[in-house]
Amino acid sequence: MTPELAGKRLGLLKEVVPGIERVAVFWEPIPAKTPDFRETRVAAQTLGLQLQPFEVRNRSDFRAAFTAATADRPDALLTLGSPTTVIYRAQIGRAATRCQGL
């Protein structure tokens, strides 16, 4: 994925989830992903979406992020592909389906 696709990802999400306002974003704060996150933030502002960013570096960060995201009740969850989010993609999917509000 390239940073230029951030707007398209969020635009498609907004089409699929009508009325969406808040999007939780799980991302790994590594140099290679910073441009993706920056473009995602710009795209969200353009689309009128509020981002709830959560930095994830390891398994325990995901637990804390899901707890915080669930409390904030976002309308959707977006993960930016990175080594950590790919490694834990199955766990992210299972946890997301169990969370109310996601």
Written overview of the protein:
By secondary structure, the protein is an alpha/beta fold. It has a single domain (3-98), classed as Response regulator (Rossmann fold, 3-Layer(aba) Sandwich). It is built from five helices and three strands. It has a three-stranded parallel beta sheet, with helices on both faces. α1 crosses α2 (34-47). The chain starts with 5 loop residues before the first helix and ends with a helix.
Count the domains: 1
- Largest sheet data: 3 strands, parallel
The DSSP helix count reads: 5
Instruction: Report helical residue fraction.
Output: 40-55%
Mean pLDDT across the residues is 84
In the CATH classification, which architecture applies? 3-Layer(aba) Sandwich
SSE-based structural type:
alpha/beta
CATH class: Alpha Beta
What global shape is seen?
Answer: globular
DSSP strand count: 3
CA(first)-CA(last) distance: 23 Å
- Beta-sheet strand percentage? 15-25%
| Low-confidence spans | none
Instruction: Give the SSE order as H and E letters.
Output: HEHEHEHH
Spatial arrangement of strands, main beta sheet: 2-1-3
CATH fold type:
Rossmann fold
What would you report as the Rg, rounded to the nearest angstrom? 13 Å
CATH superfamily grouping: Response regulator
